[in-house]
Amino acid sequence: MINIAIVGSGxxxxxxxxMLSKKVADAQVDxxxxxxxxxxxxxxGVAPDHQGTKNIVRQFERTLSRDNVRFVxxxxxxSDLSYDELKQNxxxxxxxxxxxxxxxxxxxxxxxxxVYGSGEFVAWYNGHPDQAGLNPDLNSSGIAIIxxxxxxxxxxxxxxxxxSEMDSSDITAAAQAAxxxxxxxxxxxxxxxxxxxxxxxxxxxxxxxELERCVALVEPAQLPGSLPDDMDPKAAKAIEKNLxxxxxxxxxxxxxxxxxxxxxxxxxxxxxxxxxGKVCGLKLERNTLxxxxxxxxxxxxxxxxxxxxxxxxxxxEAIDGMPFDETRGIVKNDEGCVEAGVYTAGWCKRGPQGVIxxxxxxxxxxxxxxxxxxxxxxxxxxxxxYDVTGPLLAExxxxxxxxxxxxxxxxxxxxxxxxGKPREKFTSVEQMLALLN
Length: 437
Ligand code: NAP
Known about the structure:
Elements: E1 2-7, H1 11-23, E2 27-32, H2 41-44, H3 51-54, H4 57-64, E3 69-72, H5 83-89, E4 92-95, E5 101-102, H6 118-125, E6 142-146, H7 150-160, H8 173-181, E7 186-190, H9 202-206, E8 214-217, H10 233-250, E9 259-264, E10 267-275, E11 278-290, E12 293-303, E13 307-310, E14 314-315, E15 324-325, E16 330-331, E17 337-339, E18 342-344, H11 347-350, H12 356-376, H13 386-395, H14 403-415, H15 429-434
Parallel strand pairs: 1-2, 1-4, 2-3, 4-18, 6-7, 6-13, 7-9, 8-9
Antiparallel strand pairs: 5-14, 10-11, 11-12, 15-16, 17-18
Helix pairs in contact: 1-12
């Protein structure tokens, strides 16, 4: 038997499990996750009001139900089992641990109360147990979101929607209530470069044209008249669509709805201003663009905000003993190869870039490499996989959550949903484990 361990049950891990469990003869695939719940960012990162994107879990469920695939939930690699113990007991390891930690802006005031990284904020409204206790202070008339990616847009939209607009989502009841109670009037979405350089996509940008209580605004002078002639036609088409949407926002009336989303370009935060340890403003510097790069102009201005959410990307978290690139915040790897028998895929391999289909392609490439390596250097067959790690976990008193256990948790979440919501997530591991006894 070829014993394969996958660490992390998000999309990248599930795609690798799918291919290896089908294509490697006599494979046993064990997918470890530190949470009792599988699917990683599909559950805790994809916006709760984008339920269509979450449908991919049906495919992942089929993979996890396969006879030669075992979900090993509630097991933390690094504390419950060490990385070395995995290496001793598995023929192949794939590290698909994602990127959970927020990148920092590195400016004064970042530690003030009222500053929440996008990772922790998104995890909070999505019910990730790590952030269930975040309780962000949203008693703010102004909220600044830094960054021009789709994560920044997701956060702005979730803050801008009414509670009834969120009833078809699986946002947690606590987050839904906290956002509904916020007196927010002005949400600022701030890009350090221009509208042309923004990385958000048009489907997400257009959603702001259809919100009940929020109107999207942009200063017409911030939009370019035309794109450079030498631009790649595919990129130009996508940017032109964004510009078209932004132009339609530029003629919106600020007073037409009670909440305003201000799309602001070419500005970088220089200082988060505090009063008694709490955010009371944000100082920004206008940028000019030189060859597509932001250059500070020396001209500053201030926004009246009480909450600041940097949405500027993520880092992975190192597991003890695992080769790690501290500068980039990723698993150290060469085209997905980490060390003999160890591979990596997804955001922890490449950095936090790309939607689920991009991670599928990446996982497929790494799985093919694993298969080629297994064919050229067949394992000796003396690594016993779960026959060793299972008893080790039991000895250590770890309550392993199986795929059947997850189905019990899943059914309970579906059953307790109210107001037409698709599910009401449990936000603590203890709540989930209590269902299994
Ligand atoms: P992203 O698309 O890379 O956006 C990060 C943003 O942060 C960029 O605008 C970047 O500006 C800015 N930034 C970085 N450092 C900064 C700094 N020091 N000061 C000011 N701004 C800074 O990343 P993301 O939004 O976190 O999304 C991650 C991935 O998930 C992306 O591939 C995204 O498409 C995907 N995603 C997709 C969806 C969806 O399809 N609905 C939803 C969420 C996420 P520069 O461009 O100037 O570097």
